[in-house]
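Attaching the record inline, Q. Sequence:
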Amino acid sequence: MKKLLSSCLLVLFILGVSSCKKDYPRDIPKWLKNKIKELKKETRRKKGCGLGLCASIEEFSDGSNIFYLWITGTAEPAGIIIFDYDGNFQCQQSNYDSGSCGEITELETYYFTRHIWEETNY
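Structure, as predicted:
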């Protein structure tokens, strides 16, 4: 009986821990976590990426500053939105590899740090 109870508790623990797993890094800013939650709701509402173009969020850094690049997944020419680390909108444009964007200057000095989130088809 003790063994059965222990096994059940172990299974419940494993299920509890795995249910808390997020599909994005834990160390991102709170505003970005909220943005991802909104985007996930929208994805569920439209039942996937829509038009085959999936949205994603990437992190870029120059070693001291960070910005987040949101590829909106739309076919529009300006389908990229850039936010600074604090969540302030910087610009919306069609490319992100040169020039400036709001208060972020010299985009070409920034490098890809990590993939934060990607929309998926259900």
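The longest strand covers residues 111-118. The helical segments are 2-19, 30-45.

More tomorrow.
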